[in-house]
Specification:
With about 350 residues, the protein is an alpha/beta fold. The protein is built from twelve helices and 14 strands. A seven-stranded parallel sheet has the order 8-9-7-6-12-13-14, sandwiched between helices. It is elongated, with a radius of gyration of 20 Å.
């Protein structure tokens, strides 16, 4: 079996050598080359045609975001970003995912993390997963470049009228992971203004990143998008993103529906977990419920979708393989034979409108 060839891009010589050492210690991987800035990365990506690129964000001459954009235009390849833990790092990472990056890895500490060995296993796993990503699934959402400044603004307040009402008859629950930010921008961005139902989303992401994701989706969508808060009332026409490190559930109280967050143990290796959200929504018998599962590694959400289907009064939608960055989560649900509609990413919003119409 041919080894996966990796281009390592980082302005720190220490980081380049450390990541290269991790790669060379894995029998399935090999270092195709190393670049010290974005301009050199673009040149080497075109020359070497690596299977995967690891890319730092902050670099001299040309930063990682500009390099990523050039690579996606000239010689597309799966890119895994290395991100800092700061809010700025989260904002840049979400933008990178919208520009075509497959996934990201958080540096444990600072721009030069001597303790990068703590995430060695994650680095190797994500490189291997990225290598399997179809190039057709890397299409960037370049319009995010145009709304990057707006994305830093505070989410829109509740509007008056139908989009803000507490009374609604249907609810949509969406679960996604690797490749999810770009998929969510496609789906949420296609929902029309005045869409009357609430949408609850679990995206596997750490704290800070989910806030940035909600802000960016809010800036580029016709519907309102917020990071969910414990105890808040759910309104139609609003999308609620589960905050990182918290499971998100729904409770009915006094004729209203409220968000409840908790830090119960991880499920399927995740908190938030898609299964936890789905199981919570299943109990809302007065509502017509719809469940969507999209690109992601693993099987989180599959058992919850099966439970939803067995409970009745539910429609289930899975993203088709050809548009998935990683076909793990949708495939697991499809294999349970509990999916009504298997559609490519570009058809998911239309399918939601059809089943809720």
């Amino acid at each position: 079996m041919a080894k996966i060839r990796v281009l390592v891009v980082d302005d720190s010589l220490f980081m380049r050598k450390l990541i290269a050492r991790f790669i060379e210690e894995d029998p399935l991987l090999q270092v195709a080359g190393m670049a010290c800035n974005g301009e050199e990365a673009v040149h080497m990506a075109s020359k070497l045609r690596p299977d995967v690129i690891t890319m730092d964000v902050e670099m001299p001459v040309m930063n990682g975001l500009d390099a990523l954009e050039q690579i996606m235009k000239k010689c597309p390849a799966p890119v895994v970003m290395l991100s800092s833990l700061t809010q700025e790092g989260a904002n840049e990472t979400i933008l990178a995912l919208e520009l075509g990056a497959v996934d990201f890895i958080q540096k444990p500490s600072g721009s030069t993390s001597a303790d990068l060995y703590r995430v060695k296993g994650e680095i190797l796993l994500k490189i291997k997963s990225a290598a399997e990503t179809p190039l057709a699934a890397l299409k960037p959402r370049l319009r995010y470049r145009q709304v990057a400044q707006r994305a830093a603004s505070i989410s829109r307040p509740l509007a008056n009228g139908a989009a803000a009402r507490k009374s609604f008859s249907q609810m949509i629950a969406i679960g996604t992971s690797t490749g999810g930010p770009r998929a969510l921008s496609e789906v949420i961005g296609a929902l029309p203004a005045g869409f009357p139902y609430p949408v609850l989303v679990v995206q596997h992401m750490p704290p800070t990143f989910t806030k940035s994701l909600a802000q960016r989706l809010d800036a580029s969508s016709s519907v309102r998008v917020v990071e969910a808060a414990d105890g808040e009332t759910i309104y139609g026409g609003t999308v609620y993103i589960a905050p990182g490190n918290y499971h998100m559930t729904v409770q009915e109280a006094g004729g209203e529906y409220k968000i409840k967050l908790n830090q119960d143990p991880q499920r399927n290796g995740h908190r938030p977990s898609v299964d936890v959200l789905y199981e919570s929504v299943v109990r809302l018998n007065r509502l017509k419920r719809h469940y969507v599962i999209m690109t992601g590694m693993g099987s989180d959400g599959a058992k919850g979708m099966l439970l939803a289907k067995e409970s009745g009064s539910a429609s289930t939608i899975a993203e088709a393989k050809d548009s998935c960055v990683v076909f793990g989560m949708p495939r697991a649900a499809i294999e349970y034979n509990c999916v009504d509609h298997v559609v490519p990413l570009g058809r998911i919003a239309a399918t939601i409108l059809e089943v809720t119409g």
